[in-house]
Each structure stands twice: as C-alpha cells, then as structure tokens.
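[agent] plan:
  1. take the single chain provided in the ticket
  2. run structure prediction with default settings
  3. attach structure tokens to the ticket
  4. add a short note for the reviewer (M.T.)
[agent] executing step 1
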Amino acid sequence: MKVQVNEERCQGHGLCRLSAPNFFFARVEDGHAEVRSEDVPDEEREAVLLAAESCPELAIDVSD
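[agent] step 2 finished; step 3 output follows
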C-alpha cells in the first residue's frame, strides 16, 4: 500500500498524526502533515487507513 498527503488540501488539523503517530508527522514550518515513507508497512496499514478516513480535508491519498 502507498500513501501521499496532498499538500494543497492539508490544513494541519493533525488528526492523521493522532490515528497513525508512527507514520505521519507535522512539518515544522507550517504544521502540515507529511509521511515518513510513501510505502506503508503492514503493521501500519489499519492506522493509515483510519487516518485517511478521518482527514476532514480528504488530503490523504491511499492506493494499493
């Protein structure tokens, strides 16, 4: 599974970091989300999917 954050949509709400704190982090300059890697390890899969579903801006794109 792969994941990306759409930088134009992300508003820095931080819900993704609450759902998958080992995978998403906030950029220092603006607080917007970034991922540690586009490749999602199996042990993070459910947390990343939850993060994508909980994003109010629909800024997290997940693909298989």
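[agent] step 4 note for reviewer: Residues 45-54 form the longest helix (10 residues).
[agent] ticket updated
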